[in-house]
Specification:
Number of helices: 7
Oligomer: single chain
Structural class: mainly beta
Low-confidence stretches: 114-118
Radius of gyration: 25 Å
Strand content: over 45%
Number of strands: 33
Length: 670
């Protein structure tokens, strides 16, 4: 691949990732960034190893984030009816494929009848496979409170964040990876850690290996149905593209992420039984981070699991791997032309029992050492409609289910309606369905619509209403809420796009006043965003954004915030150096009116800027082509907070009014 073409492809992937990042939940930014890192990795792979549209499978196309489940189903129904595509522009005849979707999809597709990898022998693995070696370093340059000689709790390790990763891919047939990671504040060679790194992960995925469609040894992920019964890792939720609400299960996959919580470690395979049933048995044995305490009988009990993956202080290290989990089960699915259905059975056995404790809102949470899940999911495609749903039962506990329908009402209008009902005592640590928090104690209706009145215009909107029958954290009563979003996008050409997004959300929360009785207050958060992206020429791209937010918890006064930034990207076709720069100004009344904005980062990394207080933030991100096989990235970010005497809180506190971070990365491909 020539340099200019490679840079153009990287820019296209960045644009796709940026659009998805804007729709991810703000409350789980670390999970989001890890999800985007994996997504970026997959998209870059399919850019250089294009998908043969006539020979691919639904599982592969589900890796493309902007394709909905209905679009994937429509495409394969079209192929079964009309045969192989002769030209990629035939995609215009597939129901639900508009011009915008096709333009984004084309760079990932091909019509080659035989791929390079279909002719390979085992002896060719080392010669023709793709090897990648990564090394990444990051550090906050100012001294944080946790690294000083404190008498109490402090960070026991160094402030450097390090990551080393090796990855091997042979087309879409073999995927192997080995990852070593140390977070800031963690130590080298502490306790039983013989590798020096706090987290080590590895996996080997083989496709079409003998009788198995897929075989994974090591760390793996499982994503089935609509995310109620079994879904590890992260998934997209409510976003501007309402057609993406129906989940696209990826089934069994290797785990290559740096996140240390939501994955399985062991063995899983996928194979066909009697040519009509797909079976996926799995077994996993892992040590999870947990908060343990002793009861009156001096027995260890767990008050909860920790998903941060951070082991910096004595208390965090004490909880590392303290809860052992044996997890096993089976997924059986049947796929036909228009109908798919599956049964999910899994069992969890924990070493230490869970205890709900004294808080009343925890009364219906899981307790004990064993948990069983039985679930059923389905989807059915009929003409321009796509029906989907899942129901699940936990033992002990109650039931959870959702059902939805997505339909193309006309060439320019599509809509989706979803109803969900999760019992207050439904228990599942591996659930990622549509919900306002955990997948329990909730009933709700979601209605969304996409309207394309003209080729250059797209209007999207959704209304999500929900009820919480039982108490939750900071909500000492049953409550309800709603969220309304509208987005208008104008794209007159490939080089220009303007967007207006409005969102308002209403919830309930305990009062902040000291009263002799429980009282609820309404919490409302409004958001308005205006963005323009345009490309001046082949070398320079610009993005402008202005965003306003308003937070009010009655009867307190409203709190407001704003963010304005300018991005400049410079990608000269023949230069060894390219990069992008952001200059942002922000002012928020408090943390409640904080704002988030996706930030460009070094390759295969993603970050979300958190803006609150008053100040300015800037970063410079550079890519250096050192040799044909060796590339480097460098990012420097600086936040200046007016006249503040300190930044942050707790052990992350910095004395002064500025915070800077340096990140460097090398990639060697061979």
């Amino acid at each position: 691949m020539n340099t200019a073409r490679g840079q153009e492809e990287e820019e296209e992937v960045k644009r796709i990732i940026s659009l998805i990042a804007d729709d991810l939940p703000e409350e789980e930014s670390s999970k989001n960034m890890d999800f985007l890192t994996n997504l970026s990795d997959d998209l870059k792979f399919y850019k250089t190893h294009k998908i043969n549209i006539n020979k691919t499978t639904p599982e592969v196309l589900k890796d493309i984030p902007f394709l909905s489940a209905a679009q994937v189903a429509n495409l394969f129904r079209y192929l079964r009816k009309n045969g192989k595509l002769i030209d990629l522009m035939e995609l215009q005849s597939v129901p639900g494929f508009d011009t915008s979707t096709i333009e984004k999809l084309l760079p990932f597709l091909s019509l080659e009848q035989e791929t390079e990898y279909s002719r390979l022998k085992f002896s060719d693995l080392l010669k023709k496979g793709n090897h990648e070696l990564f090394s990444r370093y990051a550090q906050v340059l100012e001294q944080q409170k946790g690294y000083t000689d404190l008498p109490g709790s402090r960070y026991l390790g160094s402030p450097q964040k390090l990551l080393f990763k090796y990855r091997y891919r042979m087309g879409n047939t073999i995927n192997a990876s080995l990852l070593f990671k140390k977070d800031a504040g963690e130590t080298f060679f502490s306790g039983n850690n013989r590798t020096g790194f706090d987290f080590v992960s590895g996996s080997l995925l083989l496709k079409n290996a003998g009788p198995f469609s897929r075989l994974v040894i090591g760390d793996y992920s499982l994503q089935f149905g609509q995310g109620i019964s079994l879904w590890s890792g992260f998934s997209l939720g409510k976003g501007a593209d309402v057609a993406g609400l129906a989940k696209k299960q990826s089934g069994l996959g290797s785990y290559t992420s740096g996140s240390e919580h939501s994955f399985f470690r062991g063995l899983s395979v996928n194979f066909k039984l009697l040519k009509i049933i797909n079976l996926t048995p799995f077994i996993s044995l892992r040590n999870l981070d947990a908060n343990l305490t002793q009861n009156q009988d001096q027995e260890w009990i767990s008050t909860g699991l920790s998903s941060s993956g951070l082991h910096r202080t004595a208390s965090e290290i004490a909880g590392k791997g303290s809860q052992r989990l044996l997890f096993y089960g089976l997924v059986a699915e049947h796929h036909s032309r228009a109908f798919s259905a599956g049964i999910i059975l899994n069992y969890s056995q924990y070493k230490h029992p869970f205890s709900t404790g004294n808080p009343l809102y925890k009364k219906h949470q899981f307790s004990g050492t064993s948990l069983s899940i039985a679930g059923f999911h389905y989807n059915y495609s009929y003409r321009n409609s796509y029906l989907f749903g899942e129901c699940s039962k936990s033992l002990p506990g109650g039931m959870a289910f959702l059902n939805g329908i997505m339909a193309s009402l006309s060439p320019g209008v599509s809509a989706v309606v979803l109803y969900r009902n999760y019992a207050k005592d439904y228990h599942n640590f591996y659930a990622q369905a549509l919900a306002e928090g955990e997948v329990n104690n909730e009933r709700g209706i979601y209605v969304g619509i996409n309207i394309r009145p003209a080729s250059k215009w797209l209007c999207s909107a959704y209304l999500n209403t929900f009820q919480l029958p039982w108490l939750r954290y900071r909500i000492d009563f049953s409550s309800s809420g709603s969220e309304l979003m509208t987005q208008l996008t104008y794209t007159p050409s490939k080089s220009f796009k303007a967007q207006l997004k409005l969102k308002t959300k209403q919830t309930a929360q305990n009062t902040d006043e000291y009263l002799p009785f429980n009282s609820a207050e309404q919490v409302k958060k409004d958001n308005c965003r205006i963005g323009i992206t345009w490309k001046l020429n082949r070398e320079i791209s610009l993005e402008h954004r202005a965003e306003l937010t308003r937070y009010q918890k009655s009867p307190s006064p409203a709190e407001t915030g704003y963010l304005v930034y300018q991005d400049i990207s410079y990608t000269p076709p023949s230069s060894r150096i390219s990069g992008n720069l952001r200059i942002a100004g922000f002012h928020t009344s408090s943390y409640n009116s904080r704002l988030y904005a996706y930030e460009d980062d070094v390759l295969y990394a993603s970050s979300s800027g958190l803006y609150y207080g008053k100040g300015m933030r800037t970063y410079l991100n550079l890519k250096l082509r050192i040799t044909r096989k060796l590339h480097g990235w460098l990012k420097y970010a600086l936040s200046v907070y007016g006249e503040q005497e300190r930044i942050g809180s707790g052990l992350d506190e910095i004395q002064g009014h500025q915070k800077s971070e340096l990140k460097a990365q090398l990639r060697y491909q061979f």
